[in-house]
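Usage

Read records sequentially. Each one opens with the input sequence:
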Amino acid sequence: IATLTRENGKTRIKVLKQKEVEELIKKHEAEEAKAEKDKKEKEQKEKDK
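and closes with the structure output:
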């Protein structure tokens, strides 16, 4: 995977190493799990009302 960024008016390409990609995937999965948990808690609270 690579990222594109803009620095000093120029586009830079950074190719990520496998370890960096794995870390980003883990972070994303953790955020998704938290969002899903929050959604379920909200639904449960509304159901209990």
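Summary fields computed downstream for this record:
- The beta strands are 2-7, 10-15.
- The longest strand covers residues 2-7.
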